[in-house]
Write the structure tokens for this entry.
Amino acid sequence: MAEDRKGNVLCMDCKINFDDNTEFRQKEIFALKDESQEDARDSKANAAGLNYIALDGTIGCLVNGAGLAMSTMDIIKLHGGSPANFLDVGGGATAEQVTTAFELITSDPNVNAILVNIFGGIMRCDIIAQGIIDAAQKLSLKIPIVVRLRGTRVDDAKALMAASDLKVIPCDNLNEAASMIVKLSSIVELAKDSNVKVNFELPI
């Protein structure tokens, strides 16, 4: 707002945000959205039903639930690391959505390692495990992945990953998982700085 010499109050700038949850009621307004003005990863995440926000760190995060995602990023920071994204797959994700989530995370060239932190209440751990397996095969992932799974069908999930021969590092304790992923990310970063190629082969 500004006031001119004659005392008139003018609106100099404004910004309007529309809640995505209202899209089904405001189709005409949302039809005006210009996706070319958005980050391509944001558009891909929206199309897949994922909540994704790119950050400037080096550790990719795949989590279910906004609260758990925030606490995961906090504990990464506590151990001296920096999250590369906020990515919440929600409570009803499919294996295909998990694969898309990995595609989004690995599309960021700054990502050195990935931490998967899933609490299986509504979300089944075996679906996450199958998504990890599919993503590793499809994307030929060569960066370290630490996986913490707790909750529904966690034993089935562990059995799936064990049978797949994937070189994924399982960890039941979140504090230990965060510490481990920060160290692994640091190793990859040091290798990059020294122009030394380090591959974490997935699968073996």
